[in-house]
Design a protein that fits this description.
Structural class: alpha/beta
CATH superfamily of one domain: HUPs
Distance between the termini: 18 Å
CATH topology of one domain: Rossmann fold
Keywords: Aminoacyl-tRNA synthetase, ATP-binding, Ligase, Nucleotide-binding
Radius of gyration: 21 Å
Order of helices and strands: EEEHEHHEHEHEHHEHHHHHEHHHHH
Strand content: 5-15%
CATH architecture of one domain: 3-Layer(aba) Sandwich
Organism: Limulus polyphemus
Protein name: Tryptophanyl-tRNA synthetase
CATH class of one domain: Alpha Beta
Number of strands: 9
Shape: globular
């Protein structure tokens, strides 16, 4: 199993129009005063700094490795394709064992992708979209199968949802995911509530993981307390099971040693965020804007594919030549295009299309 990890990102819903001001000077929800270290677990991200999470400390804490230029160069060499801008800009900033995946790929050995979504709302947000955009790129350049887990059971345990509500949200989220443009011949999407009961091999791997992990281990890693329900405590095993190819015998047959690459993200924290511009036009022109904390510029880093234009914006905004209003205007134009295109594609995702993606079946893969 290998992972590539994505930095945090804020939320704008994919089922709404982007209009007007998308930034605020209020930073609650992003920064918590009085804490000594960033607080990060699978469900909570709180930073002690206005510039966000200290990713270098995070890499050291979790024992991963930084995605450096050597790794990016190697990805481009083995695929023969330019690296995705999310890699080049350090948005996907850390990895575990990515070189092992590339070693296998160079030897013509197969691997597969696994990512997921916890359905807690009717529509995905832009921040939720990023891992799927990157997964789609990985699927295309490496020509590999992908499994996508919808953890509706997780949201039932953590949120005030009924089973029926969680199942409904999973199906609605599946439509947003499919609208990203995944290849139905190489992609299997499954809901935990629907799938686990029909796949003994998946459940058996869940139980193997559960037996191999102690309460003290999950308590330390995930921050569980004595008042948490037992469903939460055992749930990490459910999310671990898809990383084993043996969990999907209808895809991989009796092959149990196919490695898995997992694109994943730290959860979103930018509910409120700073503008990096000056308090007045005069101050902005004199001192320039701070791109490191400006949420509009950070959005552009995620979604503007033209790196030359992004560098130009950073230079002009930092110098004070480009005002905050013009920066936001450029961002809104880009986001309007992305959301409008996604909404149009989503209209074509019928219940029948969803059924095709969520039916257990053999996928097209090179074994």
């Amino acid at each position: 199993m290998a992972t590539v990890i994505q930095k945090t990102f804020g939320d704008i819903s994919l089922d709404t129009d982007v209009k007007g001001d998308i930034s605020s000077s209020d930073n609650s929800g992003l920064v918590m005063d009085g804490i000594d270290e960033d607080i990060i677990d699978p469900w909570t991200v709180v930073s002690k700094s206005a510039t966000g999470v200290d990713y270098d400390k995070l890499i050291a804490r979790f024992g991963s490795s930084k995605i450096d230029q050597n790794l990016i160069d190697r990805i481009e060499k083995v695929t023969g394709k330019p690296a995705h801008h999310l890699l080049k800009r350090g948005i996907f900033f850390s990895h575990r064992d990515m070189h092992e995946i590339l070693n296998s790929y160079e030897k013509k050995k197969p691997f597969f992708l696994y990512t997921g979504r916890g359905p807690s709302s009717e529509a995905l947000h832009l921040g939720h979209l990023i891992p799927f955009v990157f997964s789609k790129w990985l699927q295309e350049v490496f020509d590999v199968p992908l499994v996508i887990q919808l953890t509706d059971d997780e949201k039932f345990l953590w949120k005030n949802l009924t089973v029926e509500e969680a199942r409904h949200l999973a199906l609605e989220n599946a439509k947003d995911i499919i609208a990203c443009g995944f290849d139905v011949e190489k992609t299997f999407i499954f809901s935990d509530f629907e799938f686990i009961g029909m796949c003994p091999a998946f459940y058996q791997n869940m139980i193997r993981v559960q037996r191999g992990v102690t309460f003290n281990q999950v308590k330390g890693i995930f921050g569980f307390g004595e008042s948490d329900c037992i469903g939460k405590i055992s749930f990490p095993a459910t999310q671990a099971a898809p990383s084993f190819s043996s969990s999907f015998p209808f895809i991989f047959g009796d092959k149990k040693d196919i490695p898995c690459l997992i694109p994943c993200a730290i959860d979103q924290i930018n509910k409120y965020a700073f503008s990096g511009g000056g308090a007045t036009v005069e101050e902005h022109k004199e001192k320039g804007g701070n791109c490191d904390v400006d949420i509009s510029y950070q959005y552009l880093r995620f979604f503007m594919e033209d790196s030359d234009r992004l560098d130009e914006i950073r230079k002009d905004y930092s110098s004070g030549e480009l005002l905050t209003g013009y920066l936001k205007k450029e961002l809104i134009t880009i986001l309007q295009g992305i959301i409008a295109e996604h909404q149009e594609r989503r209209k074509t995702v019928t219940d029948e299309v969803v059924k095709q993606f969520m039916t257990p079946r053999k996928l097209k893969l090179n074994l």
